[in-house]
Amino acid sequence: MASEELAKKLQSRRAATQEAEPRAEPRAEPRAEAGPQEAEASCSSSSSSSSSAELSAVLTRRQDINDGNAASRPTRVFNPYTEFKEFSRKQIKDMEAMFKRYDTGRDGFIDLMELKLMMEKLGAPQTHLGLKNMIKEVDEDFDGKLSYREFLLIFRRAAAGELTEESGLMALARLSEINVSTEGVMGAKDFFEAKVQALSLGSKFEAEIQEEKDERKRQEVDKKQRQAAFKQLQSAFCS
Question: Residue 199 above 80 pLDDT?
Fold first, then answer.
């Protein structure tokens, strides 16, 4: 009996001890770090969203430019006298006058229909395919029309002998009445002649510029003389 009572006391004391001890809270498992594949996927997603945003910005700006809500970026300034040194100032002015005469849209370009009219006026009409091929030969920016610089390229290639006889561009250059076959460095027969022409090119331009200034001065003097004569005539009538 004594042993049974002792066993019961030990069991009750053990139960009381277990109830008094605080229960341990479950540990939170550490969060596993992202693996290399998950990191790459995250970077790829971020890069893709950035590219999409850039593309959207470009398309939006292009639409704004087309709608007239934004100004296009300024283009590089083109100086025909420094870039096309093989031609004289008179030749370049003649080419510019011809370009403006057929640029009926006044947009700084000669499109397919304007080129068609030009070739008809020159007496060398072309087919629709022929006109497209003419533009394609010098169309550096692939916009399907001729800029003033591309128009000058026609005469550069004609002077250099780079156009075939059956080419529509050759017909244009030949019928334009602008002689580019013998002037400038491109028309020189050998290296020494080309060197001499290159050295004299600067003085040649200076002489042409001086001639233009002298001509403007003569025009101003004539204008003043006409104004003075008119005033004398007017005073004679009033007196």
Answer: no
The Cα-based distances of 176 to 10, 136, 154, 171, 182 in angstroms read: 125, 20, 11, 8, 16
Helix (H, G, I), strand (E, B), or coil: what is residue 123?
coil
Distance CA 207, CA 218 (A): 16
Tell me the C-alpha to C-alpha distance, in Å, between residue 31 and each of 25, 28, 35, 179.
18, 9, 12, 83
Going by C-beta distance under 8 Å and a sequence separation of 6 or more, which residues neighbour residue 110?
99, 102, 103, 118, 145, 146, 151
Q: What is the mean pLDDT of the chain?
A: 76
Using a 10 angstrom Cβ sphere, with 0-12 exposed, 13-18 middle and 19 or more buried, the burial of residue 109 is middle
Query: Looking at the chain, how many residues does it have?
Result: 239
Q: Is the CB of residue 153 less than 8 Å from the CB of residue 137?
A: no
At 137-150, the pLDDT tens digits run: 999 999 999 999 99
Q: What is the pTM of this model?
A: 0.49
Tokens representing residue 147 in the block: 């800029």
Task: Name the packing angle between helices 148-159 and 89-102 (round to 10°).
Answer: 130
